Amino acid sequence: MSKILVVEDNELNRDMLTRRLARKGFEAVVALDGRQGIAIARSERPDLILMDMSLPVLDGWEATRQLKSDSTTRHIPVIALTAHAMSGDRERALEAGCDDYDAKPIEFAGLVKKIEGLLKKETGEEEKGDRSQETGVSG
User: Fold this and answer.
1) End-to-end CA distance of the chain
2) In this predicted model, what pLDDT tens digit does every residue of 14-66 receive, in sequence order?
3) Would residue 97 be called left, alpha or beta, if left means φ above 0 and alpha means ψ between -120 and 50 degrees?
4) Residues 35-45, buried b or exposed e (16+ Cβ, 10 A)?
5) Distance between CA atoms of 58 and 64, rounded to whole angstroms?
6) What is the pTM of this model?
7) Tell me, what's the pLDDT at 52?
8) Distance of alpha carbon 126 from its chain centroid, rounded?
9) 52, β-bridge pairs
10) Which domains, from first to last, does the chain contain?
11) Coil, helix or strand for 17?
12) Which of 55, 70, 117, 138 lies at a C-alpha separation of 20 to 30 Å from 127?
């Protein structure tokens, strides 16, 4: 079961996402702001992060930059979630280190496809890395 960290300050959005993710077989953990999101990402090591970009304490833009600059969390895919679906926001999210972008209101089926695609990509990279380590150890 893949673990997804949902960093979302809006209770309705957070509850909707966690319930629907659970129904799809994901384990959801929650953070209410960017600072808490960073701490939970470091301690829980989720497989993927859904990051609201408009957060209290530390916004999603800066939280993502910090996660991607940390060697223990930089490999975790981040999908930006934002109500600010304006021109340039997708590019801004990618520049901050997000691996993908989704505008609110969330179309859940499309979001799940993005999640599954990033998880498959991450798994494929991990498997390649594991094989090269095994080769190095046995040689």
Assistant:
1) 33
2) 999 999 999 999 999 999 999 999 999 999 999 999 999 999 999 999 999 99
3) left
4) bbbbebbeeee
5) 10
6) 0.87
7) 96
8) 17
9) 81
10) 3-131 (3.40.50.2300)
11) helix
12) 70
Q: Does residue 112 contact residue 24 with C-beta atoms inside 8 Å? A: yes
| Mean pLDDT calculated for residue range 133-137 | 40
Strand ranges inside 1-112, DSSP E: 3-7, 27-31, 48-52, 78-82, 100-103
Buried b (16+ CB within 10 A) or exposed e, 93-125: beebbbbbbbeeebeeeebeebbeebbeebeee
Both tokens of 102, joined, read 């989704």
Provide the residue type at 56 as one letter: P
Are 63 and 41 within 8 A, CB to CB? no
> What is the Cβ-side half-sphere exposure of residue 29, based on CA atoms within 13 angstroms?
19
Both tokens of residue 79? 């999908």
What would the two tokens of residue 34 be? 């960017």
C-alpha of 52 from chain center: 10
- Model pLDDT, residue 88: 81
Reduced to 3 DSSP states, what percent helix, strand and coil does the chain have, rounded to the nearest 5?
A: 55, 15, 30
Give the Cα separation of 64 and 38 in Å (integer): 8
